[in-house]
Automatic annotation (TrEMBL):
Protein name per UniProt: MCTP2 protein
Record-stated family: Belongs to the MCTP family.
Taxonomic path: Eukaryota, Metazoa, Chordata, Craniata, Vertebrata
Any one Gene Ontology cellular component term annotated for this protein: synaptic vesicle membrane
Keywords: Calcium, Membrane, Metal-binding, Repeat, Transmembrane, Transmembrane helix
Compartments, record wording: Membrane
Domain of life assignment: Eukaryota
UniProt source species: Oriolus oriolus (Eurasian golden oriole)
Keyword check for Hydrolase: no
SMART domains assigned to the protein according to its UniProt record, in alphabetical order: C2
InterPro entries recorded: C2_dom (IPR000008), C2_domain_sf (IPR035892)
SUPFAM superfamilies named in the record: C2 domain (Calcium/lipid-binding domain, CaLB)
Pfam families noted in UniProt: C2 (PF00168)
Residue ranges annotated for the C2 domain, each copy included: 1-59, 93-204
């Protein structure tokens, strides 16, 4: 019930060299659970923004009244990574020992915001649902922790895909839940949902 909403949400998008350089933003209005209406879109060219500083942007919505006020900062990725299973981080025993010392009980209050990190090895899926007419799917996996999101590559025409990727997330809230969702890539259309699992960090 507001024409001037304030969200005050922070999202971290992990920007890698193989991703596109445009940030696409959509604003939606929700009447109830079934009815949604697009209120406008805007786009930000990431490559045109200065790095290592916070950029305050007022973005007019295309073909609709209104604008968005955003703060966008581009900085080197820290604490997050995607790697292959064969070059898995933390594989070195000396590195694991350094990490154990860093997060031991006596160092708990050295940096309150540095809670720790989560490493997830996404190996494979088995017996997925067929989403294509050919009886196959083009599955990829999306991992979400808080407002952080990373995803695997797509394995085409396969109901038993193997990704063998290692994802590392910084943990900002120990009460967060890791959500792992499998989608079927569908060209220019929105991906089809194939399944989901939620894992509370406190259960790990």
């Amino acid at each position: 019930k507001s024409a001037n909403p304030q969200w005050r949400e922070q999202f971290d998008f992990h920007y890698f060299s193989d991703r596109k350089d445009m940030l696409d933003i959509e604003v939606w209005r929700k009447d109830n659970k079934k009815h949604e209406e697009l209120l406008g879109t805007c786009h930000v060219d990431i490559t045109a923004l200065p790095t290592k500083q916070t950029n305050c942007l007022e973005l007019p919505l295309e073909k609709h009244p209104g604008s968005l006020l955003m703060l966008i900062a581009i900085a080197p990725c820290t604490g997050v990574s995607i790697s292959d299973l064969c070059v898995c981080p933390l594989g070195d025993p000396s590195e694991r020992q350094q990490i154990s010392q860093r997060y031991c009980i006596k160092n708990s209050f050295r940096d309150i915001k540095d809670i720790g990190f989560l490493q997830v090895k996404v190996l494979k899926a088995v017996d997925l649902m067929a989403a294509d007419f050919s009886g196959k799917s083009d599955p990829f996996c999306v991992l979400e922790l808080g407002n952080d999101m990373l995803q695997t590559h797509t394995v085409y025409k396969n109901l038993n895909p193997e990704w063998n990727k290692v994802f590392t997330f910084p943990i900002k809230d120990i009460h967060d839940v890791l959500e792992v969702t499998v989608f079927d890539e569908d060209g220019d259309k929105p991906p089809d949902f194939l399944g989901k699992v939620a894992i509370p960090l406190l259960s790990v």
